[in-house]
Amino acid sequence: MSVEAKKCSILVVDDEVAILFAFKDILSEPGISVDTAQSIEEATDLLTVNHYEGAVVDLRLGGSNGTEGFEVIRLIKKQNPRCKVVMLTAFAQSEIRERAFNEGADFFKEKPVSPEEIRTLFASSGIL
């Protein structure tokens, strides 16, 4: 029995468990590892031990400033500048969109967004 080598890893960071579950279910396939984090602390822990080719990051992760996702993007891009990052938010003002791209996001999507749409973005980027 042969074991297929893992092709890539994706990190999904959102404070809503249902969203984490949906994205993990849709994005997982043989050769694709999907890790989830509900907080910036969990994301930081995962980033210290894993290398990610793709990430989905919510802007608001339940912290006091409401923009924890920007910090997560900085951490991801510091670890792997080539990682494709999708920022999600229900607050899609132009200032937030501009800051997301300045922080290193490759894509910006307003919630609600389907996991299938994220899958398509990653596929078009060569991740899936």
What is shown here, in short?
Helix 1 crosses helix 5 (115-124) and helix 2 runs parallel beside helix 3 (68-79).
Which H/E pattern describes the elements?
A: EHEHEHEHEH
Widest sheet: strand ordering: 2-1-3-4-5
Describe the main β-sheet briefly: 5 strands, parallel
Distance between the termini: 24 Å
- Helix/strand structural class: alpha/beta
CATH architecture: 3-Layer(aba) Sandwich
Low-pLDDT segments: none
Radius of gyration: 14 Å
Counted by DSSP, the helix tally is 5
Any idea of the CATH class? Alpha Beta
CATH superfamily: Response regulator
User: What does the overall shape look like?
Assistant: globular
CATH topology: Rossmann fold
Percent helix = 40-55%
What's the average pLDDT? 90
Bin the strand percentage: 15-25%
Q: How many extended strands? A: 5
The total domain count is 1
